[in-house]
Known about the structure:
Blueprint (H helix, E strand, L loop, with lengths): L3 E4 L2 E4 L4 E7 L8 E7 L6 E6 L6 E3 L7 E6 L4 E6 L8 E10 L2 E5 L3 E6 L1
Parallel strand pairs: 2-11
Antiparallel strand pairs: 1-3, 3-8, 4-5, 4-9, 5-6, 7-8, 9-10, 9-11
Amino acid sequence: QVQLVESGGGLVQAGDSLRLSCVDSGRTFSDYAMGWFRQAPGKEREFVAAISSHGGQTYYADSVKGRFTISRDNAKNTVYLRMNDLNPEDTAVYYCAQGRAVSDFRSWGRGTQVTVSS
């Protein structure tokens, strides 16, 4: 059974950086694409970034392109989201996701809260 556990969220000020981590304890990590999504209060969950199974392709939402970087370490079963130049609009619960393809995420973590104060 897949278990994805996110960490690294917190309360920061505008302009600060954070790095989120997501550890997969349940499967052959390198077989799966990984992604990050977020959900702000009162809004639907939205795509943030994704990375192919071996890290060769990455994808970003326009709103985070140039500020966020997704990466993975298959030896550690971990995917990361480096977030720079955070702004209050980035405040959300961030979820890690896993799937056979970047267009087909089926397993989700419980999320980690990121709050950016102005």
